[in-house]
Amino acid sequence: xxxxxxxxxxxxxxxxxxxxxxxxxxxxxxxxxxxxxxxxxxxxxxxxxxxxxxxxxxxxxxxxxxxxxxxxxxxxxxxxxxxxxxxxxxxxxxxxxxxxxxxxxxxxxxxxxxxxxxxxxxxxxxxxxxxxxxxxxxxxxxxxxxxxxxxxxxxxxxxxxxxxxxxxxxxxxxxxxxxxxxxxxxxxxxxxxxxxxxxxxxxxxxxxxxxxxxxxxxxxxxxxxxxxxxxxxxxxxxxxxxxxxxxxxxxxxxxxxxxxxxxxxxxxxxxxxxxxxxxxxxxxxxxxxxxxxxxxxxxxxxxxxxxxxxxxxxxxxxxxxxxxxxxxxxxxxxxxxxxxxxxxx
Length: 345
Hints:
This protein is of the alpha/beta class. It has 15 helices and twelve strands.
């Protein structure tokens, strides 16, 4: 038998405070979110985390959506760097009770270590230890957007974490989670941090990636191992894959990702993409992202396929799968409602 979960804490009243649940088969009440029928989650199944983006004009609704995710038993809510991850973390620190949450990631070139340490120490304290501070070097487009010049990723990350930990007058810091893609950053996470988070990685290569952690970290249940996994729920598998092709094309333009995917067994795909880019055929790139590649990076298809896919990522060593929602028929809120339906039963 499953268990009924209580609804999360309400956010402060105000205009547009609640996610419009009725539009997605749910019903709003005096609390921010409740179900038409009680949510029942199978005791034997641990639910994944979600990635949520607090888009302008729907930020309060996003907090309510996170509260609903907590009520349904999801493990956490993590937010990409360019979408207000730290402000949303502040709201979740006060508006939820059990969720893990944090940025995935906060770019180290965006804030001085002391400044970030003050915010992180505050969120760690007021959340009762639920905040996870994801740090990463980000990518060239992010550096351009921030107006910063990146240095050497490994040396800069090591220095930044050391300066963060040396900050005085901030109180205890939260667990630090490093974004990693290739072996040396994975190893650094095992050395200086309390977790590692991946994005757009190859599922079947996860055991190889995690082998670069020190043995004690690989067996430590407190060491966070997360993966951001693009997820699209649809009975039409081809339509779901097409959504992923649109959302992942920009990553195919990044050399560091292409190098990783080439090493992971997708040399032919990366060669074709690089030829297209060199010839100015950017519009051809989505069609060069093969089904084999899509299925190793994403979750696509009907409910059973999504649940089986989450289980496969856990079996590969990811203790906290983080589903990044997309939908064939709508935006983020529709996509999250579809994920809710996958795990309600």
